[in-house]
Amino acid sequence: MNKSLFACLVASAGLAACGGSSDDGGAAAAAAAASAAAAASAAAVKDPLTYIDETRMVSSAEAKEWLVNKDNLGPAYAGSAKYDAYIAFLEKKMREFGLVDFTRYTFPYPFWETTEWPDKSGWSLTSDGTKIDVASYATNSGNTGAAGVTGQMIIYDPTLPAAQRPTAAQMKGKIIVIKHPAYSTQSAPSTGNSLSDYEYRSDPQTFANVNQIMPLSNDADFRNRTQLSTPTTYGANVCEPAGGLAAIWVLDMSPLAAQGARQHSTPRQYTCPGVLLDRNAGQKVLADAAAGKTATVMLNATVKNTRPAQVIAYLPGKNYGKANDQKLLMVTHTEGPSNVEDNGSLGIMGVLHYYSKIPQADRPRTIMVYLDNRHFVAGAEAAYPFDYMQDFPDAANGLVGGLAMEHFGGMQFNEVGDEYKATGWPAHTSVYTFPNPLAIETAIAIVKEVKQQRANVAAPPAAGLGNVYNKLGVNGQSQGFWYGPNFMTPFVEHGRLPGFHVTGDWPSAGYQAYYPSVGVRVDSEYFRTNVRTSIRLLQTLSTEDLTKYAPDWGIVRANIDSLTAANFQAGVNATTAKTDFLAQFDTIFALVRKGDYAGASLQLPALRTKLQTQVLAAAATNPLANIDRVIALAAKGANLPPQ
């Protein structure tokens, strides 16, 4: 066999055409046929729930088509016609993928809206007679009508001591110019300017150090999030109570970064009509305000009564409809200002595309899809009713775990001076999970396997478990907080079930109504990488014994690891005792990994007794409660997919 033919066969693994000389043409054809048959045989034997079978993956062309369609729909806020169109698109795709038993759970919602970038006809500003370029509007801030309102400006600088800020009486009836703090002055990590500690990072050189403010020249996403996260603080809590006529927000953002920006979290509806300016446009306004000049703010908005829909549907597993059926929940939010912010639902479509090509008889567990629409609903970040999983508790029957997904394929942007542009790297992706050692190892292994760039695997406290554990990261520091933690509440509230959350970062491509984004701020190939990560995580949940993945195992270990010398009873050597506790737990969990729950059950009571007798009662309350939970888990044994 000649060298070129050998190279061709190695490279193509038996693709149809490998050229050779006339002498070895028959041999080449035979070899190619044999190789193709061997590959087909191997593929037939290999379980598509144990690896990524690329033939079942959403193609590059189809992924791009989905994202372009999302661009064409524009911002899809719950209650809007564009949201309804997007939901119709998603429902059509799900039906094509074989999902059944659809539910549309609607609720009454007064939807506030104005024009969206680049249509600025609904909002404008004139300062001392000069028209100012307005970057965006203040979300849910009221309505001036088409004529706008005119008044004297006054500066509100939140960085000044309270005694030096204007009083409510001084702001009444005036246009309040809110001077946002400079990004460089806002400390990390409490403002979200940095990433906290972690379990694993790929491409660590592209991140700032732990708890270090993220330099704009590296990544502007963190600055954008910080600048756009205070609407309630200054609008609803300062301007409205003072009786301000309107507000002007001067952001510390370059012009392109600020265009079409959306404040977040979404505030409740309040009365202080506002507009947002970039830092350059804001300089004249700040100077005019300091001189007591007047301005005219126009924000022409409407509020209409709507009934937006949450969508719930099922991809049946082999036991669907039977009493022993087990369900995995895939959840995301479906509304927002931009492609990447609300395309987690397209990520779910990518997973469904793959699973739909596996026969129902070979799908061990049913997939329940929940497309939520409250993320950008007014006031929803604090609390909002109409949660399908809470309002219909039976929906959780058979629930054994799941996966949250959001912000797929976003690109990283940086800012140098006024130049705001893509760096060539993807925005980082956080893969969150509960502190179970096996779950963490699984997430890290999958991130490495699919070559997820700029990945950040972490196990911070989740919603509903904030005071139950605090697992430190690889640098011995706090892992901070879980972005989008509310997605995990179904898993916490229904038995602390194993779950993962795949979330790309978003402010550069997410807090702006910026279109078209595909090829500029969203990359279809990186979107597919996010889908691969999600598929592999769901495959784990689909096929594995989920008792060993339960969060409580890791919570117990984190409880023990958090004990300090002050937590131990008098006369106990804290260092020795803690080391012994951890070693004993690790021995027990090694049995759990092997599925030896009987062995774990024999050893857990002894660990509990040691904790109870060597740790002060107040400090032992939480660890003992959680060790009782794993004792109950061990007694139940393995949770494998039913036959």
Quick rundown:
This protein is α/β, with parallel strands linked by helices and 643 residues long.
Description:
By secondary structure, the protein is an alpha/beta fold. The chain has four domains: 3-45; 59-106 and 308-543, Aminopeptidase, CATH 3.40.630; 112-180 and 230-304, Glucose Oxidase, domain 1 (3-Layer(bba) Sandwich), CATH 3.50.30; 551-636. The protein has 19 helices and 21 strands. The chain has a nine-stranded mixed β-sheet with strand order 1-13-15-14-16-21-19-20-8, covered by helices on one side. The radius of gyration is 28 Å and the shape is globular. The relative contact order is 0.12.
* Count of distinct structural domains: 4
What name does the CATH topology of the largest domain carry?
A: Aminopeptidase
Radius of gyration from the alpha-carbon trace, in angstroms:
28 Å
Overall 3D form: globular
Rounded mean pLDDT is 91
Relevant CATH superfamily of the largest domain = Zn peptidases
Helix content: 25-40%
CATH class identity of the largest domain: Alpha Beta
**Number of helix segments?**
19
Q: Can you tell me the CATH architecture of the largest domain? A: 3-Layer(aba) Sandwich
List segments where confidence is low: pLDDT < 50 over at least 5 consecutive residues. 1-24
